[in-house]
Design a protein that fits this description.
It is a single chain. The chain has about 90 residues and is an alpha+beta fold. It has a single domain, classed as YlxR-like (Hypothetical Cytosolic Protein, Chain: A, 2-Layer Sandwich). Helix content is about 40%, strand content about 25%. The protein is built from three helices and five strands, in the order E-E-E-E-E-H-H-H. The strands form two sheets. Strands 4-3-5 form a three-stranded antiparallel beta sheet. Strands 1-2 form a two-stranded antiparallel ribbon. A hairpin with a 3-residue loop joins strand 3 and strand 4. It is globular and about 40 Å long.
Length: about 90
Amino acid sequence: MKHSPILRRCVACRNLFDRKKLWRVIRDFKVGVVLDTGMGRSAYLCPNENCLKEAWQRKRLQKALRCQVKTTVIEVLQNRLNQSKDSITKAI
């Protein structure tokens, strides 16, 4: 039996994607805001510069998670984005 992909909506561009292609940001009740793993309220974000910028400027992550999101979370996501760009450039 073939499973259909589980779709999630990016908080910035509002498009639906397979959740495996999105970044997951979680509001964990013990730790605070974490990335990728954990239990709690989640928001999903496309791994591209425009969505990251939109989410930060319009406070889309804060609204979706219903809490404050520190700039360090955005910086980590920006570093991931830069690393993926570097790996694409090296492959070419």
